[in-house]
Amino acid sequence: MSRLAKVFNELQQAGRKAVVPYIVAGDPNLSATVPLMHSLVAAGANVIEVGVPFSDPMSEGPVIQKAHERALAVGTSLRATLALVAEFRQTDSDTPVVMMGYANPIERMGYRVFADLCAASGVDGLITVDLPPEEVDTVNVELKRVGIDNIFLISPTTPDDRIEMITSRASGFLYYVAVKGVTGSGALDPSEVSRYLDKIRRVSKLPVAVGFGIKDASSAASIAEYADGVVVGSALVDALAAAAATGVSQAELEQVATRLISDIRAGVDGVASAA
Question: The pTM is what?
Answer without folding.
Answer: 0.94
